[in-house]
Design brief:
Elements lengths: L7 E3 L8 E4 L6 E4 L8 E2 L18 E2 L6 E5 L9 E4 L5 E3 L7 E7 L8 E11 L5
Parallel strand pairs: 1-3
Antiparallel strand pairs: 1-5, 2-3, 2-4, 6-10, 7-8, 7-9, 9-10
Length: 132
């Protein structure tokens, strides 16, 4: 199986190990995901330069992690095996248990606390609850 790195640039600040989404306002751009956004991947853990805390800033190249096992920053306490979704900052959180349709990025391969970098099985899918 071949992996091709998409040529994407940041449409704003993107921090390391965050879910990213397509910027619908510009071609070939991505942004940090917000809560329940459709995610296209998880950015790499590298920073744009040695004195920066950001992976990319507006106009910079964005590197997505390739493959099915990715590293992601936890936005809250994570339970091993739990389906993960994005919070408002692109961090992983356990799936919200409600009746709203949810966008899932994958499954936690290890437990962690807010701020931890954990392994996740990248397997995006959409849960549509019965609306009748």
């Amino acid at each position: 199986m071949h992996s091709i790195q998409p040529n994407l640039e940041a449409g704003g600040t993107i921090r390391p190990y965050r879910f990213v989404k397509i910027n619908t306002g510009a071609d070939n751009q991505c942004l940090e995901s917000d809560a329940n956004d459709t995610m296209i991947g998880v950015c790499a853990g590298s920073t744009r330069q040695f004195d920066s805390a950001n992976h990319a800033e507006d106009g910079d190249h964005v590197t997505l992690q390739m493959g099915s096992i990715v590293m992601i920053e936890a936005g809250a306490s994570i339970t091993r095996g739990a389906p993960l979704e994005s919070d408002a900052d692109g961090k992983a959180t356990n799936q919200t248990a409600d009746t709203t349709s949810r966008r899932i990025g994958g499954f936690a391969l290890e437990s962690g606390s807010s701020g931890d970098i954990i392994r996740m099985l990248w397997q995006p899918y959409f849960i549509r609850h019965n609306l009748s």
